[in-house]
Amino acid sequence: MSDIFSMEEPSLDLTPLIDTVFLLLIFFIMATTFAEPVLEVALSEASSAAAPERKERLALTIDAEGKYHHGQAFITLEDWRELLANAPKDMLIVFNVDRNAPFNAFVSGLDAAKGQGRENILINAAQPGQDNPK
Prior knowledge:
4 helices; single chain; five-stranded mixed beta sheet; 5 strands
């Protein structure tokens, strides 16, 4: 009769839970160390954040529909490549991009500039409906 009344106190073994938590922690640490940035971005210090005033710049505006404009004229991607080919290699390239513009339109224009070895690039983003600076 004493066996019926002598029950052990219930307990919960947390060892498998702790093992699982450590495995998840190791997985996430390893996954974040292998991730590399897709696009290298060099940010300037706050004291020199403003771009120096230059009169020589080649500007491409991309509107919300993904259309390219140079000045007030509509251009194609091939026209943009031709403008880049005819411009001096040290000229500042300015992208004025509407925030609602399709990303692939921006990347195509940027790839055209990078494909010609352009390094001096400035990217401006405008709010939807706001006029992009030309």
